[in-house]
């Protein structure tokens, strides 16, 4: 009888330890997600900062907010020269108006065709409103923000060839 009681006590202790370990595991898995509640705001802030630089013609600073894949696609000097040449000289504009949609969280996203798939990203459509020598031009660009290490960085959407981008109106 005494052995049975000792065995029951041991099972209770082992069961308690297993429950405590399970709870600790759940807490460790859940706590990081609690602190990511501001992730959409952080993603939106990166896009806003990027386009504020673009609005003032500070293309070098906006380039710094690109994901390494974008930096590889556009060397800094080429990007700065091209943006200044096309938008400031050809369009004849010094700045533009801006509308940024709310971030949408997406999973397993193929942002640049043929490149890595991102497990999590925030998608935003940005409308730039130019008053140019060619009249008023609204240009919509799809941006994604992902984490690269601890930094939030921006990518532009490059779908597979022939795949038109669907843009939903927010009206």
UniProtKB/TrEMBL annotation:
The organism sits in which domain of life?
Bacteria
In terms of InterPro entries, this protein maps to:
NTF2-like_dom_sf (IPR032710)
Q: What is this protein called?
A: ABC-type nickel/cobalt efflux system permease component RcnA
Please tell me the species this chain comes from: Paenibacillus amylolyticus
